[in-house]
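Pasting two entries for a bug report.
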Amino acid sequence: MNTPSRVIFSAAAAFAGASIVIAAPYVPKDTGRKVHDMDQPQPAFVEVAPQPAIEQPAKAPSDAIVLFDGKDLSKWETKGKSAPTFKVEDGVMVASGGDITTKEKFGDVQVHVDVLIPPNDDGKGQDRGNSGIKLMGQYEIQVLDTYKNQNKTYADGTAGAVYGQYVPEVNVCRKPGEWQSYDIVWRAPKRDASGEVVTPAYVTVLLNGILVQDHVEVLGNTSGPARGYKKHEDQEPLLLQFHNHPVRFRNVWVRRLDS
């Protein structure tokens, strides 16, 4: 990309049979930087309009699968197939107890999620309003309080980052206590008959209506020090992360996309 703060990572992945594909830790091309480099430049902050005065979320489109309508968690379960640990309070989901996943599975999909980071969170770095939206349960789009870059953390872990892989184009995080919207277009990885990835995943992300990830090639699982594509089904659940912060969610819906 043309933005100076943009860092494109390169990774060499080797396939070991049909089990797990492991890549070396990401080293950004021509920079020598590794994942979560604290000296990596922060994305420029761009002020967006404050949360509208009208508190009600917009309605989902007619072809959407509504995953949370403010009433219950009937379409969710705790990772591990038990009742969801998130709470429902005043028509929103509150993160607590553990990650939750959708009962339904998805491949290529458009995702919309409204997120609110509590205004009284006084943690620092990754311990400040931390959560995540994980496509297929393992490819994370970061949720974090990075309003005006006042919360110092590694750039590839700021709000709207493809965690540990791509710094957002710009920082358009609203202040804690205001609703923020994530709109994600996800193209799942495609595999051949042996399970080898032949087409990587791609993701586009808009945060608060502003493009922060422009059809970037996902380099594999975003968790752990040595990432890479792990074997999984063509369709997997959507995951909302509990990271020890009572982040709130509402207006969660998806649209299946043609491949």
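Entry 2 (this is the one that rendered wrong in the viewer):
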Amino acid sequence: MKRFRTLGWMFIVTFLLFFVNQGRAYYVAPAYVALLAAGCVGFEGWLESKGGRTPRLGFGLLWGAQVIGSLVAIVLMKPVAPINSPLWEITSSVNEDVVEMVGWQDLTAQVAGIYQSIPEAEKPRTVILAGNYGEAGALDLYGKPYDLPRVISGTNSLWYRGYGESEPQTVIVVGFESSYASHFFGSCEYTGKVTNSNQVKNEETTHHTGLYVCREPRRPWNEMWQEMQWFQ
């Protein structure tokens, strides 16, 4: 029992730390595995102490709840519902991360079109600056067939990867307002707006939706890069 109390306090303290620091809800998800395991041990001991048919009924109830709970979790947490279907409307309202998974291939295709329009002489010193880790990851994953240039980002640990061995001269800016881009570059050309084929509203299609090609860095990159670090 003492171990159970210790485990409970460990969870409560961890939960409160993430809550105060505005962490995402799933940050504490691994802790529930330990809590469920501890609860099962306690529940099993209680059932065995009752004797008779109680253990059999209790285990049946436990397995039934496990199956139902797993099915509900899969539907709510995994992108299994067809996009824009009635079930999708329900699951996306519960799990907003599912909405943010839509449109990465469309974004990559848009950026690829912009990259192809850049003069060949500029391409060796061209990079893509992504505003968040989702955009950076998608462009890196889906950009290989398009032969896209290096994707850089100041988000979280991506900042430590730097901007490359040579200073970029042409930058395709994704996920920023024009004022942010203009702070670092003397010339920024608007080249389009982020969209997706499913017409789903998410961060990319409703916030900082502009796509830009920027040139003429205002300062050396080693100075600008110190300001291009942010956390999400």
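Dev reply: Rendering is fixed now. As a check, the viewer should reflect this: The mean pLDDT is 90.
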